[in-house]
Amino acid sequence: MISNKKKVSYIILAIVTLLIIDRCTVIDLSPTAIFKSKEFKAYPYLNGVASTSTHEIKRLNDYGGNITYDTIHNYFLHKGEKFNALGKLINSVSLAYPKSDTLSIYESMRLLFAPKQSQYILGNATDSLVYDFSKNKIEQKLTKIIYSTEEYPVLSSQLYQQADVVLYRKKFTNNDDIYPIYIKRGNEWWLILHKGYYPDKKRYPEKYRKLIFLKDYKNQRYSYALSEPISEKTSIHYDIEDVVSSTIEKPYISITTELFTKDNTYERVNIMVAQLGSASFVGTEYSKLKKGDEFLYFKTGMVQHGLSKRQWSKLSCFSVPERFRKNTDVNFIVYEPMGNMDSHDDAGTYIVRPKETKNVL
Predict the structure, then answer these.
(1) Do the domain assignments include residue 27?
(2) pLDDT-derived band at 206, boundaries 50, 70, 90
(3) Which of 58, 71, 125, 324 could disulfide-pair with 320, CB 3.0 to 4.6 Å?
(4) 273-298: per-residue pLDDT in tens?
(5) Last residue of a domain, one of 143, 162, 195
(6) What is the mean pLDDT of residues 145-167?
(7) Alpha-carbon gap, residue 241 to 250, rounded angstroms
(8) Residue 83: pLDDT above 80?
(9) What pLDDT was estimated at residue 159?
(10) Could you tell me if residue 2 is inside a domain?
């Protein structure tokens, strides 16, 4: 007859064995995976058509990038594209870079430049334009082009004080020593081509109204391409409006994981993961997006650490701060796969917006 002590030992051994199988092999032992797998397989991929009676998810591109919101004029800006409060594309400027890492002088001269958190996109060396996305007609022509030197600088304390906007642009090409400075006075735009190097930016800092980033309340990230989880330095690093008060807001949209199924062991394992003696797995994550009283269901590829269940791929859902939600019902989803999943078909930026029969990009 088996003693109680041995029974306890067998139970502990069985639990440990099941835990090792669940956390360190591709075998799925969760009740949800065993009994409801067919139900979840019916979920569409994120880049498929996902909608409810009132909302839809629409893919914008296959990459990430900054997403900002103009709190005064009530629109969103992402990679040179302007979306109104309903999520409809109403204006755009191409910011596409050539595929080659090495740009010719001609290619460099054609590139536009977008200052961080700005409503403006600065033109290239040939178009003599500034694009102001707060306007219905975004193309703003330059009124003056002025040449400046260190000996005879155009930018002065008086001009700086008179200017409504001051923006420093990257050089048009890496082969010259001309530094473009854009000045707006009233309705006039001036371009100062300063030879030598930039004027003292501490004395003449850039001057413009900054747009705000959206926030992922679950993962504590902002819609800045290089954003990491919020820390004490976040408000300084990202220059977010009311960052402290906004961190305590509750999201009205959220994404939760309903199931993760393992397909393969992930080969490119972080050294810290290897030291823990646990594999990471490539698989499929089945998610539920809750927006108000509605739900949207979809699936994505995901890399998950076996022991901690930490997700390495990023799936973020961004919202405007609570006090602006009466003005817009639009959200953005950014899915960033990891490592050798970089070419995953779902990667990119998505918009969650009210469904309209005439709402087309």
Answers:
(1) no
(2) very high
(3) 324
(4) 443 445 666 678 888 888 888 888 88
(5) 195
(6) 90
(7) 17
(8) yes
(9) 93
(10) no
Of 11-20, 263-272, 351-360, give the range with the top mean pLDDT: 351-360
Q: How confident is the model at residue 336 (pLDDT cuts 50, 70, 90)?
A: confident
- Say whether both 238 and 339 belong to one domain: yes
Q: pLDDT tens digits for 169-202?
A: 887 776 678 888 999 999 999 999 998 888 888 8
Same structural domain, 236 and 182: no
CA 270 – CA 283 distance, rounded (Å)? 17
What lies within 8 Å, CB to CB, of 97 at 6+ separation is 111
Residue 314 belongs to a domain: yes
345 in the same domain as 216: yes
Q: Domain of 57? A: 37-62+212-354
User: By the 8 A CB rule, do 258 and 25 touch?
Assistant: no
CA distances from 153 to 142, 159, 198, 213, 253 (A): 19, 11, 10, 35, 51
Task: For residues 251 and 311, state if they share a domain.
Answer: yes
